[in-house]
Amino acid sequence: MSANTISVFGLGGLNEIGKNMYAIEYNDNIFVIDCGNKFPDENFLGIDLIIPDITYLLENKDKVKALIITHGHEDHIGATPYFLKKLNVPVYATRFTLGLVELKLKEHKILRETELIEVNPDSNLEFDQISVSFFKVSHSIPDCLGIVFKTPEGNIVHTGDFKFDLTPANDRKSDIHKMAEIGKEGVLLLLSESTNAERPGLTPSEQMVGEHVIEAFTKAKGKVIISTFASNIHRVQQIVDAAKRTNRKLVLLGRSMLNVVDVAMQHGYLDVPDGMLIEQDQINEFAPENVTILCTGSQGEPLAALSRLSTGNFRGVEVLPGDTVIFAAGPIPGNEKNVSKIVNNLFSLGAKVVYGSESSKGLHVSGHGYQEDLKLMLTFMQPKYFIPIHGEYRMLHQHCLLAESIGVAKENTFIIDNGDVVDIESTIARQTRKIPAGNTYVDGIGIDDVGEIVLRDRKKLSEDGMLVIVLTMSKTEKKLISAPDTISRGFVYMRESEQLIEDVNNLITRTVMGQQKSNENSWGAIKQDIRKSVGKYIFNQTKKKPMILPIIIEV
Amino acid sequence: MSANTISVFGLGGLNEIGKNMYAIEYNDNIFVIDCGNKFPDENFLGIDLIIPDITYLLENKDKVKALIITHGHEDHIGATPYFLKKLNVPVYATRFTLGLVELKLKEHKILRETELIEVNPDSNLEFDQISVSFFKVSHSIPDCLGIVFKTPEGNIVHTGDFKFDLTPANDRKSDIHKMAEIGKEGVLLLLSESTNAERPGLTPSEQMVGEHVIEAFTKAKGKVIISTFASNIHRVQQIVDAAKRTNRKLVLLGRSMLNVVDVAMQHGYLDVPDGMLIEQDQINEFAPENVTILCTGSQGEPLAALSRLSTGNFRGVEVLPGDTVIFAAGPIPGNEKNVSKIVNNLFSLGAKVVYGSESSKGLHVSGHGYQEDLKLMLTFMQPKYFIPIHGEYRMLHQHCLLAESIGVAKENTFIIDNGDVVDIESTIARQTRKIPAGNTYVDGIGIDDVGEIVLRDRKKLSEDGMLVIVLTMSKTEKKLISAPDTISRGFVYMRESEQLIEDVNNLITRTVMGQQKSNENSWGAIKQDIRKSVGKYIFNQTKKKPMILPIIIEV
Question: Where, by residue number, does Zn(2+) 2 bind (chains A, B) (predicted)?
């Protein structure tokens, strides 16, 4: 790669939903955009979080000038504490985003040593050879940015997450005039988010949700319990407004709801009338029809407030017959089953439940632009090159088709994976090389102390459990001193499988004696032999494949 | 419970989707309806199948007169081999259903000792005091039945799974005249399926799918690869018809597709033109535009044909740029992620993919009646009592509201759980008692050798792995002979955690020595102490909770 090449890559967010992290490199500058996490699915047993592998950035530590964050969703800020512990660079973001980042840094006790720099849509940052400016976009959280990097080779635009909402709940529209100007000035490369690239049409406006919330509140007879994403402050505002109109006090339940609402009120993003907020132990001082509970757990998270309410395990707060429970958020793919469990439980408590794709129509709109939104962005920017970001392959693929439909040349669109680098040299873009990229696992306190082997072991243990076989052997004569000791966990009930265990022990004794007759009686060979013969025997008898762990004690 | 009481209960299918099994008991007769399995979700680690707990039936073995099966879906026949091995009673079903049951019994080598009795919608079976007759219903598999039990106390109707399709693909309509007669004669109790009780309207007709399949075939340029449920023979017929119209040969891929199509052709349920079926190794003898591949895997099953095609792992068959892949089945809730992976892979192979709720509109219709279908059945039957079956609580709940809406008294509807018994005595129904019911796990060959404790162990092992600690202790002096031996699997990388393991070993040595000073130095107490102190230490250091398994070797 020669001088004056612009290199663009992602370390997360490509061919996946989550852990967004993109970067622009130009000579001695690297700008990192976003620093998100991803929540593990059932294939990542026991893992708490997945974050981007930043090996490349650590190898080029001195070049990294800034972490710029487009907005405060977890898939854009969730990895910040882990990132900043390894790479302490200044963080640029808007006020609300910084408020949420601060919560995380506080929790990880690194707030004081981090340099946080507030920007707004009008900010202009000058770095060596490159200037960075912003434009306002609408999304499902306040204070979102798109970013423009002006380089000597041309301008690069990163959209952040966005939709075009011409009547947003809070009156803060996307700045489409500025977008038009940016496009007119010329865009060499556009990186645009692809979440809803498969959905035709234009995203509905958030205002629609407000109308349906008020309708649901008006019909409700007892308490209203309503759940949504804590970070969707526009929606929270509409819920506050509905509570006000129907003369209800407001109780907040769930740690993230309390935290985020606190940040939003502090910085003036949320307007709650004086005296409306009450504590949960005051609920019984008011008639049910004068109470709204706003809580976390709309995605069915088993430990969140709504799940605990649905099973009667939230101390001091009860869901009673006649109460109305509203899901003001659709289930994210993968969460349907957990949401379903909660709905079943709420119905069995006698509550009226407003949920699901049929009945909640109007109680949720997406924060990500549909096809027409994406085409509008592409049309404003009219880029020479296009890289769809933030989505699975099928979304990136559809987004490229949209780009072609508005006139981007097919050969100028790049579907890339995490770690693929697009180099632009003398305004010619090519994707030829790769840098390291992948998943870093956070499990408990440890970062990266769990890897593929540990996960493979967990997977094996989870399927058929294990058998530990302890052999006490004489060091000098290399023979068994007593009968083998076999212990199983997660395999079968020991009590009901005594015969099997006895057969296994006999088999082991025979195996070890067979070994002693041959010449290769090293401990390793004995263990290997036991794993093989016991594994085969157990599979034939039970069709199960527990992990077999022979342990030899030398005496 | 006195004589002449009709008792009705479910052993599976209530408050869940899957493992359907219902029963009617009257004096010395028990009739079992359906015998399904359920596929385990990620909470049932390593389990292959979940089947009903039939303890109650085994305790009343002599009363069980028949297993009557409404239709051949897995959630209605999947447990038959396991059931019949324990309770060998005659099985009554239609020809197609028996064909599918036979496949299972053959595999389990119990076909010869089972009495299979073919019935049709006009059959009438006479048992002691009770006669059993049937009525034809439409569903997404051929040859489906509803059942009428005529008892001296009144008639009980079980709908099976159904929808009303007035233009079915195969011209075999629900027999609504007979339903009307049954209702007119009087129904004491109706049990009706609830899968789509939440969806307003009437289910679309299967014919609509046919039209869209032909459209997709006509547009396709290369090979057509199409996937649907093997058992949906009506849809398979429409795919065959589309292949015929577009002059394509047909290749079947996937074991269940081959098996079910074979049964369907044998018994005259499927009409494939002579010479249309070719083997997979003949594909290359034809131009791509003359080939259709019909395969399993529409739900994203990782081992099914479509998944293997999407990753290039199906020997001898390739998906090439220009091929069209059609998902002629919507994803069942919970399968979205697996389907999504396959779609991503197929796009990256360059195929055109027709999938998902937006684009596949028209390429799938449900086999389960929506609200208007359910109301039509309720209206035909005009039952005195109503028990919604086959669904989660929220569906059962909605179905009761539908029953009320057509005039069933609210107090005459019963939402019951598996094991709850509704007793009807002198035409008065009450739900007061329970019998045993629950999940029986099939894991490998074993039935019920895995239970809650084994599953709990697997869960724990899957989350943070384990530490095995071997202590070699002197039998006489009860003291450590050598340093403890600690082995971890699925916890952390041993190599990178040497210090931690060393600290643990030191801690164990101290713990054991502390024990020896006290008087309670039984092996059990020592193990208990180690589990506690090591568990606490590790949690403080890592925030992980591996299973800790101390093993004491006495020498």
Answer: 390
